[in-house]
Amino acid sequence: MTELDTPATAEQFFSAESRAALADASRKLAERLQAHTEALLAMTGNEDHTTLFEHNAALEGVVEEWNDAVFEHTGTSPLLLDDSIDDEDEETEQDQVLSVVSRFDLRVVDLDALLEAGRAAQERQPDELDESGDREPVESAEQAIYEISREAGEPWFELPGVEMVAGGRAYVVPEAPFEPVDADAEDVVTELAAPNGVPTHAETWA
Fold first, then answer.
1. How many alpha carbons lie under 13 Å from residue 42 in its C-beta half-sphere?
2. How far does CA 168 lie from the centroid of its chain?
3. CA dist list (Å): 185 to 76, 182, 197, 200
4. Number of helices followed by number of strands (H, E) in the chain
5. CB-hemisphere CA count at 13 Å for 139?
6. Which of 23, 44, 54, 115 has the most other CB atoms within 10 Å of its CB?
7. How far apart (Å, rounded) are the C-alpha atoms in residues 101 and 194?
8. How far apart are CA 131 and CA 122, in angstroms?
9. Can you tell me the distance from the alpha carbon of 43 to that of 60, in angstroms, rounded to the nearest whole number?
10. How far apart are CA 36 and CA 27, in angstroms?
11. What is the mean pLDDT of residues 176-199?
């Protein structure tokens, strides 16, 4: 029970007007609660949830009025009703998460051209040295494509010496509970699978 810091006196509260208001609020609450209970008992689970929400909202309003009437009469609030929403919770509810998962299968038809492009892309990037203090040499198709993609994003259609076998990209709105990609995972491949959710758009190339 929430009470005033200063005890209520008969002069402050317990008036004829507050007594009548409380009696009226209590009558409305009892009637609304009975109607609400009967409506719930009649439901089978197949109804539109909008109807349930309307019943709940109606009951909530009457409960708030009754709680206010008790306070006006006694100076105390029997129910702790707080409609305030934490700023952090509100911000979280407004956030929208979208997962974009893609895969591109490539065929190398001119390794020399690809390596040359990869080395040139590496030279244009800030130094990224290995443990020996040197750049990692571009000696494989994978390394060359990595260096080019660092500079140009996803250049799958414009890689020198490379043909696309097939590719696909899916856009998914994840369902709760949602676990984002673990950037520190030891097995990155397993992190690239699409999360459970609703696919909204898809693109494929061949």
1. 9
2. 25
3. 55, 5, 22, 27
4. 6, 3
5. 3
6. 115
7. 6
8. 17
9. 19
10. 14
11. 83
Whole-structure pTM value = 0.47
pLDDT in tens, 135-158: 788 999 999 988 898 888 888 888
| Structural contact between residues 73 and 4, judged by C-beta atoms closer than 8 angstroms | no
52: burial class by Cβ within 10 Å (0-12, 13-18, 19+)? middle
Residue that has been written with the tokens 């507050």 in this structure? 18
Tell me which amino acid residue 188 is.
V
What residues contact 102, with CB distance under 8 A and at least 6 apart? 154, 167, 168, 169, 170
Burial of 115 (0-12, 13-18, 19+ CB in 10 A): buried
